[in-house]
Amino acid sequence: MLSNHFVQVAEELGIKVKQVTDTIELLDEGATIPFISRYRKEVTGSLDEVQVAAIRDRIQQLRDLEKRKEAILKSIQEQGKLTPELEKKILAAETMSLLEDLYLPYKPKRRTKATIAREKGLEPLASKIFEQIPFDLESEAALYIDTEKEVNSTEEALQGARDIIAEWVNENVELRKKMRDLFIKEGQFVSKVIPGKEEEAIKYKDYFDWTEPVKSAPSHRVLAMRRGEKELFLMLDTCPDEISAIALMEKEILQNAANSSVEQVKFAIKDCYKRLLKPSMETEVRLFTKKKADEEAIKVFADNLRQLLLAAPLGEKSVLALDPGFRTGCKTVCLGPQGQLLSYDAIYPNEPQKRTAEAGATIRHLVEKHHVEAIAIGNGTASRETETFVKSLGLPKNVIVTMVNESGASIYSASDVAREEFPDHDLTIRGAVSIGRRLMDPLAELVKIDPKSIGVGQYQHDVDQGALKNSLDDTVMSCVNGVGVEVNTASKQLLTYVSGLGPVLAQNIVSYREENGPFKSRSEIRKVPRLGEKAFEQAAGFLRIRNAKNPLDASAVHPERYEMVEKMAKDIGAKVADLMTSEEFRSKIILKNYVSETVGLPTLQDIMAELSKPGRDPRESFEVFNFQDGVNEMKDLKVGMKLPGIITNITKFGAFVDIGVHQDGLVHLSHLADKFVTDPATVVSVNQKVQVTVMEVDISRKRIALSMKSDPIAAKGTFSPKEKPEEKKKKEVEVDGDLAAKLALLKGRFR
């Protein structure tokens, strides 16, 4: 990697060149982002996970650019057309688009109109015309009439010359750069319904006759229009005003006052725009806006996923889990504190069987037999009815009854992971187990499910799937390592995301554990087959062993620093365990005394912070949530009702809230707060408990509009006097309640 790229990345990210080079070196050696940001702060200058990931991604882009330069130089060299000046331009190209523009004249082409014209010997005529000096056009063109070459008239000769000129204009690097800027800055998305498909495409009605600037179109609308086009409901154009585009081209290409040659060049310019440059630029703009929309959508998805994965765990409790239903009954399982399946059954407290007495007796018996501390009820079909039934049983007050978001549970139950865990049980039992375990530890259970099936995100099936997977994998790895993993109870799937492990080593750890019993120390992990020193270095700090002989094995202190901690304890006449239980002992430690060439204050401060709360789960404490009693279906809703709810998903246009009626409602961007909000993620988070007001209910179309404003009725349609006119206009569009509902439909969040 060239050193000037290190400088470039450092400038772009606002950090030092040494931070970039040292981080790249760690990454190239196989270090993971969680390990680098947590245990190599002295090397990177305390870069966090976001900065390390940014360095990794940007360097990869630049490496890809270098590879493409090498391939292009080789191709032009083989053609015998590589000049020192061209080589210099190619090597200096900073973007892939500029690089491809430089390569365009030399890129192997299929047989084009210009190619055919050259075969007819018309290039000299094109060259003379392109000089734009006055001469007798007809007489000159007549010299190229050749029936054997199928040039039968002066007009055919001139047409061929114009075809060649059009290709030259299209390959003009400077013009392409200016045209690209024009398309991005002044281009318009113009969406229209395909005639005759108005009824079939009703969910895209907002885009039947829609125009907005390319430069400011939000990601969710870009993706919605593209989806409508892909489904053959919409026609989508992304071009600037044609007159402006051609005027820019003429300004760049035309050199002399009007004459017959200039007129021919003008014809060629118009032909170039319509036939070559416009389609090329439109493709580029589509790719550019798609990439930008993808990045925004992926970020929304990753942020939502992080919040969902880090939801408060109930912890190691005995749990009874119910996967509710009507005709098929409620699948019931009891789980031990480590999530092990103790028993399973089916009860029928709801219609049509309505065997409430029998179902109640079963629940009471299971609660007593397994010392159940919490009851988890999936929030799907018959959930509120089942919740009401369970709460009516008069169970001990210490038994928690709570709803659990079951999105993705059915995906898990049919997966290879579930079949491997429960080969002797059917899908329904596996689904109920997943619901119960999700209450106990959302992170440990959700890692078993493809993140795209969890129910958060925005147009996740429309974005770049490779980029989405990489981002979600980063997010899951960050969450898993941020919380830490108990190596003696963790599933193979959870261990897979631990820094330095992966599927093979995760399976080897589980196999070793099954054959040899629980790990007694971190050092014993080295005995796992194929787990070498590098993998141990990367993983050890994130693996926990409770009740180990060395208390540090249950903490986030890395084994490479055990000796230092032991020295700290010895220096003040204490034991390591004393440092982990006594603030008095910790306060005696003078950190600067332990600074060395490899260990600085950042690491020492992390160690002290960990000693003060060794192995403590960083997630919030679990709080029981209850929906409004008596509000179980959409028909129970009334405009003006104030209800408790849980945010299930966040998009760029608002947040979806579960209010317990089997249908998420939408709090539009304009109703998330009393203040003007541009990004929902700045005011709400997934799993947040909120109070909402019902604004609109449309049962036929399954749409619920909600508000989180303190006085939503009075605030509806009002704007801050400080808003700029263009902001007010934009907000007026966004506030449209019908638009909000339709956007909700487009989002596809309805169960």
UniProtKB/TrEMBL annotation:
Single GO term (MF): mRNA binding
Region forming the signal peptide: none
Basic and acidic residues bias locations: 721-733
UniProt-listed Gene3D superfamilies: Nucleic acid-binding proteins (2.40.50.140), RuvA domain 2-like (1.10.10.650), Tex N-terminal region-like (1.10.3500.10), Tex RuvX-like domain-like (1.10.150.310), YqgF/RNase H-like domain (3.30.420.140)
Family annotation (SMART domains): S1, YqgFc
Domain S1 motif: 640-709
InterPro entries per the UniProt record, alphabetical: HHH_9, NA-bd_OB-fold, Ribos_protein_bS1-like, RNaseH-like_sf, RuvA_2-like, S1_domain, S1_Tex, Tex-like_central_region
GO aspect biological process, one term: translation
Gene Ontology cellular component terms for the protein in this record: cytoplasm
Residue segments, region Disordered: 714-733
Name listed for the protein in its UniProt record: RNA-binding transcriptional accessory protein
